[in-house]
Design brief:
Elements lengths: L3 H28 L7 H6 L3 H20 L13 H24 L4 H5 L23 H14 L4 H6 L2 H11 L5 E5 L5 H9 L4 E6 L2 H10 L6 E5 L12 E7 L7 H14 E12 L9 H10 L5 H4 L4 H7 L3 E8 L2 E7 L3
Parallel strand pairs: 1-2, 1-4, 2-3, 4-5
Antiparallel strand pairs: 5-7, 6-7
Helix pairs in contact: 4-6
Length: about 350
């Protein structure tokens, strides 16, 4: 059980974290032109008080999970001032270029710079209008900070909600015997949380970007029993039934419908009988009705070409068609956490 000192440390540092990233979000909005929402969308937007209340609810759930022993207090719960200032400096230095792309609707720089057919076309985008898309070390260094600013400091807590169903699955299957694959692992932030809680768990980090995969290697350097694969999530070079758990964190909304379906089939193929697929991704239309206007506005404000279709996708039906049954679905702030099982 968590101590009173840990509770104090958590809530104090999370308040500072929210203030730090929300302040940068506020400043970003004033330094850029952005995209104006239509009057009809503006009318339906939730106010700031509602959004902050839901963020506080997420953080309170995060703390309850820690206090109940579902996962550890994060090691980096305290923001390091100098490192944070450096990251913020890089973020704001790049912000002007991001805004220039947004105003010009320039989202194909990565595609025009690509050589040969090394990557699928859908991947060659300036997602979020970010510099270099996902194909540079600079992008990998900026990405986590950009996401935290977008969610006002709540991104890490949203990812951690996947550790709750993971705990149940590993209790059944045994940590030392189980194997986990994280599809589109990005910079390894989620896997770092996994290994911090389960250092003996064998994990495989898969990503299409070699730069993000290198960042994941650095993030997981303290631990053994780690493997790294550069490949698309819809074509994983591993045998059937290789894993007990397959996770996907904020991948599905950046996939076209056909590739999204292919990734679900891969998850089903890779899992052993009784294994679990754990998905964390954006809320969809109808999940939080008061947020529907934000869900509609998001692909307009950011370059997210597949998000609008994702927001209407019946994920339970998609997984069911691949033979995976929905076990649980929960909402945490702007994220939805879903757990699917492969029949025994």
């Amino acid at each position: 059980m968590a101590s009173a000192l840990e509770r104090l440390a958590y809530h104090t540092t999370q308040r500072l974290r929210v203030s730090w990233y929300s302040g940068q979000k506020w400043l970003s909005a004033r330094l850029t032109e952005g995209v104006a929402a239509s009057p009809e969308l503006k009318r339906r937007m939730p106010d700031r008080a509602r959004i902050f209340a839901d963020l506080r609810a997420l953080l309170e759930q995060d703390w309850r999970n820690i206090a109940e022993g579902r996962y550890r207090l994060p090691e980096d719960v305290v923001i390091r001032p100098l490192a944070a200032l450096r990251k913020a400096g890089r973020y704001f230095a790049d912000l002007r270029r991001v805004d220039e792309r947004r105003r010009a609707h320039a989202n194909d720089e990565v595609f025009r710079a690509a050589r040969g057919g090394e990557y699928p076309r859908y991947f060659l985008q300036n997602f979020h209008y970010q510099t270099d898309g996902y194909l540079s070390r600079r992008s990998a260094e900026l990405y986590d900070h950009q996401v935290e600013v977008l969610f006002g400091g709540g991104a890490e807590a949203m990812r951690r909600q996947a550790l709750v169903p993971l705990q149940r699955v590993l209790a059944e299957r045994g940590v030392r015997r189980a194997r986990l694959i994280d599809l589109a692992c990005g910079t390894g932030r989620f896997l770092r949380e996994v290994k911090s809680n389960y250092p003996r768990l064998a994990v495989t980090a898969l990503d299409l970007s070699p730069f993000y995969l290198d960042a994941a290697r650095r993030a997981l350097r303290p631990w053994t029993r780690t493997e790294f694969i550069a490949a698309p999530a819809e074509r994983v070079p591993r045998e059937d039934g290789s894993f007990d758990v397959a996770t996907s964190i904020f991948l599905f909304h950046e996939l076209p419908a056909r590739e999204r379906e292919a990734v679900v089939r891969e998850m089903a193929r890779l899992l052993q009988p009784g294994g679990a697929a754990i998905l964390v991704d954006s809320i969809q239309l109808g999940d939080v009705p008061d947020y529907d206007a934000l869900v509609e506005f998001f692909p307009l404000a950011f370059h997210e070409p597949y998000y609008a279709q994702y927001a209407r996708e019946d994920l339970a039906a998609l997984f069911r068609a691949a033979g995976l049954a929905l076990e649980e679905s929960r909402i945490g702030y702007f994220a939805k956490v879903m757990t699917f099982r492969k029949p025994r």
